[in-house]
Amino acid sequence: MRSPLEIVQQNFKTAVSGYNKKEVDEFLYELRHDYEELYNQVATLKEEKSVYPKIWNNILPRENSCKKLLLLPRKQLKILNNLPTDKPILPLCRPM
Q: How many CB atoms are located within 10 Å of the residue 32 CB?
């Protein structure tokens, strides 16, 4: 990939029926600025991209812990629903 500076420093040979040098220079100047902006955006995105795996590695264990905590009441309720109704839930409780 060419750098913005390389675009500006590019020289072209002249020909008898060539393009207007001033128009070409103006176009390349505008192109350079647009290209420079995109070039900088790509560099920024690459930097940001390298941070995401670190963030994800911190979030994933927390997410798994939260899922387990959310599922715990369901498991407990399922256990309670499967208990016989004529027996006490706690071993210390006596039926009346």
A: 19
- Rounded CA-CA distance 71/65 in Å is 10
Largest CA distance in the chain: 113
88: Cβ contacts below 8 Å, ≥ 6 apart: 94, 95
Measured CA to CA, the distance from residue 43 to residue 11 in angstroms comes to 27
pLDDT at 95 over 70: no
Give this prediction's pTM.
Answer: 0.43
- Spatial contact of 35 and 4, defined as CB atoms under 8 Å apart: yes
Q: pLDDT tens digits for 45-93?
A: 988 888 888 787 888 788 878 777 777 777 777 776 776 666 655 555 4
pLDDT score at 70? 77
Instruction: Judge contact between 76 and 44, C-beta under 8 A.
Output: no
**pLDDT average, residue stretch 16-23:** 80
